[in-house]
Design a protein that fits this description.
2 copies of one chain form a homodimer. Chain A is α/β, with parallel strands linked by helices and about 240 residues long. Chain A is about 30% helix and about 25% strand.
Amino acid sequence: MTGRLTIAGLGPGDASLVTPEVSTALASATDVVGYAPYVARIAPRDGLTLHPSDNRMELQRAREALQLASEGRHVVVVSSGDPGVFAMASAVFEVFEASPQWRDLTIALLPGVTAMLAAAARIGAPLGHDFCAINLSDNLKPWPVIEKRLRLAAEADFAIAIYNPRSASRADGFQRALEILREAGLSERLVVFARAVSTVDEKIETVPLREARPEMADMRTLVIIGNSSTRRVGRWVYAPRQAG
Amino acid sequence: MTGRLTIAGLGPGDASLVTPEVSTALASATDVVGYAPYVARIAPRDGLTLHPSDNRMELQRAREALQLASEGRHVVVVSSGDPGVFAMASAVFEVFEASPQWRDLTIALLPGVTAMLAAAARIGAPLGHDFCAINLSDNLKPWPVIEKRLRLAAEADFAIAIYNPRSASRADGFQRALEILREAGLSERLVVFARAVSTVDEKIETVPLREARPEMADMRTLVIIGNSSTRRVGRWVYAPRQAG
């Protein structure tokens, strides 16, 4: 048997948002590797070994997955959302690049519904015009880079999807991000806080940026800042197709 | 029977990328409304009326869908990819906002795998770091706005996903976009041309920006410009998680 590595996105949480392609891959997997809360979404069965691991173990996890695949297993690395958006795919390629012994391994990536798409769908169409996605975690990039990108995104009048707005290790990062956007003149923009979309913990809240407070977000929240044309209609928030 | 309107994303093309949520909605629909090539992806059955329409008919199509739903039908508006990303959701809300008589209608949006996620998964992980998505169509926004956003996106060192790079009505827009990015110093960046991903017409090509030519893209192509750290490893292209 030839081993192979599949890097799959499980979508935001609900089983009805897992693509059939991903379900098929999981059905033939011998091993599932991932962050424990995502691995917990996979039903145990005979012939399948689950390998849950802690947060921030991305590189070790990628190495484990590549090693298992090289031994002839069919390994599925699972991420929430889409594996290529602030998830496991880049970490796997970092290890893969540094490890020529695995260069001939069969690898496939299976896309998924990333958090910003699920969040946008719940509230309307805030990503219906040009937008950007910024990971607010500064574990892997200097904070000044994040500040610069926020300022340029505001100047470009992009809607802004913010991933990982808050974590225990960066208590004030999101606070500072909100300040930067207010300084850039965006106080009246609509801000959507979408928490744990499609799970039992789902909560969606929309406020103008001037009323946004850091504690409205936690580790499970995706934040979308509207562009200059983003507006409410009834219970919905959307960006018109026309530029503002 | 109470009418309702569901705005659903069919993913990039292959049936294995349609979410179960969308399949369920289609199974109970009485009417499917959309651009003809997308409606053609829905299997005909008794009790289901298909309403295909031409390109650039977004507002008329949205009005037709809202009208049918208000008459008690269960209408599914279909888009390729995700309905909220440069697709039908914003057009529906534009009509909805202008039409108070439909304000009480039940509306739901079902996310899908948008083109840039499918394209990224085929080639590796070019969206693994901060990125933006720009619709190059200038039907609904002035070209100078697009130029400004391209320049700011380059300055922010975002990976850039370009939707609708070319259409018959804008022969030189994409050519100009490539020039702007070269002027911004991005000539060595990797550019991925991903055409018709997950269909029989799929074709993926990666070149440095200095070698990119407009005719490498057509109406079915999604283009991803890498950031300053994006690199090749074997047959793959990926953005490391670390900033460049």
